[in-house]
Design a protein that fits this description.
Elements (H helix, E strand, L loop, with lengths): L5 H8 L6 E6 L1 H8 L3 H10 E10 L1 H4 L4 E2 L4 E2 L2 E8 L5 H11 L3 E8 L5 E4 L2 E3 L7 E3 L4 E4 L5 H8 L12 H21 L8 H30 L3 H23 L2
Parallel strand pairs: 5-6
Antiparallel strand pairs: 1-2, 2-5, 3-4, 6-7, 7-10, 8-9
């Protein structure tokens, strides 16, 4: 299976016909409700080609119960498809879309200059403002690149709603996030394995963030070491590299 774009991901979700919406979302709504600064408004206007509301997963459209406790409410899952222009800044635009929608969103992103991206973000009630929904943790993203085809195939093969645990909508959504994290971990471990518990899923997410940070540090130090001409400084940089690599290996074991 080769990733070609948004429709293939939608097909992989196995969405029932009753949940499909297929409506275009005006950029003005995102500008008004999801772009807090002038710079963000410009990003939306210049970077987004189209935002499409693909599906709405609710108890009456997929037969899965809603969820609510003192921390969060999950009464509807939204699937959105975001088409970006070639020079758009995807990281910030993904964040703006997730923040703008008060429901849990599965976002499919296409940008002509890169591979498709699938992303999600948990949400909870704001602790400081009654009735307001905020992000709970990091935005989880995975690139559906041909360079990582085995992980992509494994991910797309497991996303269909009937295959996911779904005693309620929140459990379904968290299982999607876990599948995205498993795909990201597979890029490092070479094996697509979903977490067996919420604790492991949280630990994996933290380990992925740590691996990404350490990888940046390692690459930066390697570049500096290659340019360094003083022997003593080279020795010091190589020692730092070994220490960072050891920390990376430890974090990798937690994936």
């Amino acid at each position: 299976m080769t990733v070609t774009g948004t429709q293939q991901v939608i097909d992989a979700l196995g969405l029932p016909a009753a949940a499909l919406v297929g409506q275009r979302v005006p950029k003005t709504l995102l500008v008004e409700h999801g772009a807090p600064t002038v710079a963000d408004k410009r990003l939306v206007e210049a970077g987004i080609e189209e935002l499409r509301w693909v599906a709405s997963l609710k108890p009456n459209t997929i037969g899965v119960a809603a969820f609510e406790d003192s921390v969060r409410q999950c009464v509807e899952l939204i699937v959105l498809a975001l088409s970006l222009r070639p020079d758009a800044k995807p990281a910030r635009l993904l964040e703006l879309v997730h923040r703008a929608v008060p429901y849990h969103v599965l976002l499919i992103v296409n940008q002509s200059v890169s591979s498709p991206v699938l992303s999600g973000a948990d949400k909870r009630w704001s602790q400081g403002e009654s009735g307001r929904v905020v992000l709970d943790g990091n935005i989880v993203t995975t690139h559906l690149s041909a360079a990582t085809q085995p992980a992509v195939d494994a991910l797309l093969g497991t996303l269909a709603v009937p295959r996911r645990p779904h005693p309620n909508l929140y459990t379904l959504y968290r299982s999607w996030l876990d599948a995205l994290l498993a795909a990201e971990a597979a890029l490092t471990t070479g094996v697509f394995t979903e977490s067996g518990s919420t604790e492991h899923s949280a630990a994996r997410e933290a380990a992925l963030a740590e691996c990404a940070d350490l990888d940046k540090q390692i690459k930066s130090l390697r570049t500096a070491a290659a340019k360094e001409r003083q022997m003593a400084r080279q020795v010091d940089l190589n020692l730092q590299l070994r220490q960072l690599q050891a920390r990376y290996d430890e974090a990798r074991k937690r994936l």
